[in-house]
Hints:
The protein is of the alpha/beta class and about 325 residues long. It is about 50% helix and about 15% strand.
Amino acid sequence: MSKDVEKNSNTKIIIASGVLFGAGALAAATVIGLKSVASHMFKIAVVNDRESSKKKNEEHIDVNEALEGYKDEIEASREWKRSQPFETVYIRSFDKLRLAAEFLPAQGAKGTIIMVHGYRSSAERDFACIMRDYYERGYNLLLVHQRAHGLSEGKYITYGVKESRDVTDWARWVEGHLGENMDIFLDGVSMGATTVLMASGLHLPSNVRGIIADCGFTSAREIFKHVMKTKYHAPGFPVIGIADRISRKKAGFSFKECDTRKALARSRVPVLFVHGTSDEFVPVNMTIENYEACNAAKEILLIEEAGHALSYFVDKEEYLRALDEFFKKYGKC
């Protein structure tokens, strides 16, 4: 009987040890799996694959059904842009990257519009049509190639954290070349909108009269959570936190640094917020939050039934009316 008990006891001990080992192995496998997923997220979200982005820009109209109805208008505007004598100009960023932009002066210009494109995009794509409207209204055009995009150097996309400082430098470039009395307006779309909103909390030149922010998000962490939920049906925790640690180590920035609301709380530059109410990529509530956080003079334009970055196309008349009023109200020239 004692042998049976001993046998049973030994069996229990062996089983218990097996359970503990299995749980430890599972935990280790889970940690490894999470790190792998986070590394993949970092690569997809932060490291820019230039060839993939270039192909995306070239094929954008063909693959984006939402733009199909505006294809002729976009192509005509692109042809107009390519027929203009744009000059490629360069600056050196605070962290020694060579940054590029395309500049087109307007005769008798009353100001300059600095246009900042979105994630893995280009100014030619995101401002395809409206740049012509700006030019015909008498504004110089500066089409920024964000760091890690186009002709600009860089490997990492930092969601406005470092790009906002680049925009400030571009504004200083315009001031240095055209004078401190020349109006400057910053215009950003999507991540570009977040970039110019982040710049609003920095030391911009005094002749930056206003900011147009079209469908910008509130923070990197919140847009990551939203995309993971809607596109991948996965929770953000703990993957975003692990990816953040990777980003701090490799790319030199934390996702927590990207928060437009904190910048807008310090801002003194007037802002025109624009967003489509049917935007599924960046929820319209993010622009409403940005609007509420802004301590500067502010306007908001919500375009019914417009998807992501489509407000201009859905209601061009109302979009341009709001812009004209904004320029007239806050411009000095």
